[in-house]
Backbone:
């Protein structure tokens, strides 16, 4: 159509084209961790990003935790991935390391995609044993038993503390 020297064109888009979109979805939507203690990180947990839509989308960069000191992202196969009908999923693993900070620690893992960002909530807890009073001196002559002394064990962390009896 020509109106006052300007060409106006009508472009049609089918409803199938308008509805085709990549839809990013993560599972699980939250990870709960308990620190392994002794300076070791927790067992790693896996998060899967899935395209539940009808068109491909790209993951931009590497999924990252907003608190990399406590939440370690490893085994990433989502770096700059394209999720489509052939490869509809990718995954990362995350571990929690409480270090010496107060817990609980919260954070998020973010997947940046060209169909929108999606995130996973992260929560890390840490059991912490504190013995009071310290130190204790047990004095006894050879072949005798020392006097009993009370020792108080307190969990000052934010996760359950498991005690295991060991034979002496």
Residues:
């Amino acid at each position: 159509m020509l109106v006052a020297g300007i060409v106006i064109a009508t472009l049609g888009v089918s409803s199938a084209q308008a509805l085709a979109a990549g839809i990013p979805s993560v599972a699980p939507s939250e990870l709960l961790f308990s620190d392994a203690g002794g300076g070791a990180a927790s067992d790693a947990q896996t998060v899967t990003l899935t395209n539940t839509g009808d068109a491909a989308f790209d993951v931009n960069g590497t999924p990252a935790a907003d608190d990399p000191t406590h939440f370690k992202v490893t085994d990433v196969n989502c770096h700059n991935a394209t999720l489509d009908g052939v490869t509809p999923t990718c995954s990362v693993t995350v571990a929690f390391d409480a270090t010496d900070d107060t817990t609980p620690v919260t954070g998020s893992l973010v997947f940046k995609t060209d169909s929108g960002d999606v995130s996973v909530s992260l929560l890390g807890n840490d059991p912490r044993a504190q013995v009071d009073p310290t130190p204790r001196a047990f004095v006894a002559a050879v072949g005798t038993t020392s006097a009993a002394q009370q020792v108080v064990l307190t969990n000052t962390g934010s996760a359950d503390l498991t005690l295991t009896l060991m034979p002496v």
